């Protein structure tokens, strides 16, 4: 048995994104946010027009597609800026807005063809909902993504090519009652089916979780991590719930029917959840990032750096690390060399 490091020891206590990219892609990588003009079934009336309780009508989008900017034009505008700042980093296309598989398989294939043709693209990250992947049907969209990944891996351009495909898949909570109150329109079992179907095709799955949703119990984040541990998930993004302009949550907050969590509560919940998280799951985000001008509450939601510092301090104070409770009680795996890699 190895000697556990003491509280004073400074070492990476979570599996950070930089180390994951090094392992998967052979080096640093940056994401170029792109808008392909997809909608969302929870916004366009397919499921509902209300949206998830925390989502504003912009759906995390830039709106550039609606303004007439093609993917190639968006890439031409944004990629050189990132290249100038991070000359050694690989660039990944990141379809972030709305639900990027909410279309026919043919439309998705057209978008993937456009992405393949972007100069220097080294992979794809794509945000979507678990009920928009056909995991129970003919799997045409998942097959299109898998074909895109295989095609990219075979390009032989001396770099990884778009062979790397990550699906950013919203779960938010593993508690179906919480999902229902949040207006998600899918349950946890739907997420599990989608994650298994995607991973079976070689696609990486990064799950999104939110702490402090209406009706969530004090251990919701920890329990959701336990749920993810049983699935073929490669990454997780953790978020504090923000009250943003234009959301259903804004109305609840203004009426006094919702009170956001405090920063200390969030830090404690995150550290407890991280200690349960499987050590091979990369922690890709530790706190939410509000878009400029959208945050109403809590005040501390605008200070992401302060939240990250509080989480880091609490990991250190408890002398704990990712996976300590159940996977690696004696010492953490060697994820990286520096503590600065924490996302
Ligand atoms: S959070 Fe995602 S799934 Fe929910 S309404 Fe917004 S875009 Fe749709």
What would you note in describing this structure?
With 343 residues, the chain is α/β, with parallel strands linked by helices. The chain has one domain (17-330): Alpha-Beta Barrel (TIM Barrel). It is 33% helix and 15% strand. The chain has helices at residues 17-25, 71-85, 105-116, 140-153, 176-181, 188-200, 220-229, 248-254, 263-276, 304-317, and strands at 29-34, 90-95, 121-128, 165-172, 204-211, 235-240, 243-244, 282-285, 295-297. The strands form two sheets. The chain has a seven-stranded parallel beta sheet, sandwiched between helices. The longest helix has 15 residues, at 71-85. The radius of gyration is 20 Å and the shape is globular. The protein starts with 16 loop residues before the first helix and ends in a 26-residue tail after the last helix. Iron/sulfur cluster is lined by residues 40, 42-43, 51-52, 55, 59, 98-99, 129, 170.
Give the SSE layout.
Elements (H helix, E strand, L loop, with lengths): L16 H9 L3 E6 L36 H15 L4 E6 L9 H12 L4 E8 L11 H14 L11 E8 L3 H6 L6 H13 L3 E8 L8 H10 L5 E6 L2 E2 L3 H7 L8 H14 L5 E4 L9 E3 L6 H14 L26
Parallel strand pairs: 1-2, 2-3, 3-4, 4-5, 5-6, 6-8
Antiparallel strand pairs: 7-9
The protein binds iron/sulfur cluster (SF4).
């Amino acid at each position: 048995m190895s000697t556990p490091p003491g509280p004073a020891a400074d070492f990476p206590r979570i599996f950070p994104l930089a180390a994951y990219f090094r392992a998967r892609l052979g080096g640093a990588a940056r994401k170029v946010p792109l808008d392909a003009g997809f909608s969302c079934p929870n916004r366009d009336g397919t499921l509902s027009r209300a949206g998830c309780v925390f989502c504003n009508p912009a759906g995390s989008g830039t709106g550039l597609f609606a303004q007439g900017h093609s993917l190639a034009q968006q890439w031409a505008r944004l990629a050189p800026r990132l290249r100038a700042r991070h000359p050694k980093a690989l660039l990944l296309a990141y379809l972030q807005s709305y639900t990027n598989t909410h279309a026919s398989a043919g439309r998705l294939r057209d978008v993937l063809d456009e992405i393949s043709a972007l100069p220097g693209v080294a992979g794809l990250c794509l945000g979507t909902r678990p009920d928009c992947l056909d995991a129970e049907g003919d799997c045409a969209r998942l097959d299109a993504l898998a074909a895109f990944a295989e095609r990219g891996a075979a390009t032989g351009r001396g770099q990884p090519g778009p062979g790397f495909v990550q699906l950013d898949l919203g779960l938010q909570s593993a508690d179906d009652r919480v999902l229902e109150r949040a207006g998600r329109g899918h349950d946890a079992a739907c997420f599990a089916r989608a994650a298994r179907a995607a991973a079976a095709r070689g696609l990486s799955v990064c799950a999104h979780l939110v702490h402090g949703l209406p009706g969530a119990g004090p251990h919701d984040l920890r329990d959701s991590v336990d749920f993810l541990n049983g699935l073929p998930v490669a990454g997780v993004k953790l978020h504090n719930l923000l009250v943003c302009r234009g959301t259903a949550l804004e109305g609840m907050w203004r009426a006094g029917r919702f009170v956001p969590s405090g920063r200390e509560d969030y830090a404690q919940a995150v550290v407890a959840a991280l200690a349960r998280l499987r050590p091979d799951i990369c922690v890709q985000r530790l706190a939410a990032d509000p878009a400029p001008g959208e945050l109403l509450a809590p005040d501390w939601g605008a200070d992401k750096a302060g939240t990250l510092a509080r989480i880091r301090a609490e990991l250190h104070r408890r002398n704990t690390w990712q996976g300590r409770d159940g996977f690696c009680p004696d010492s953490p795996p060697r994820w990286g060399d520096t503590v600065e890699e924490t996302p």
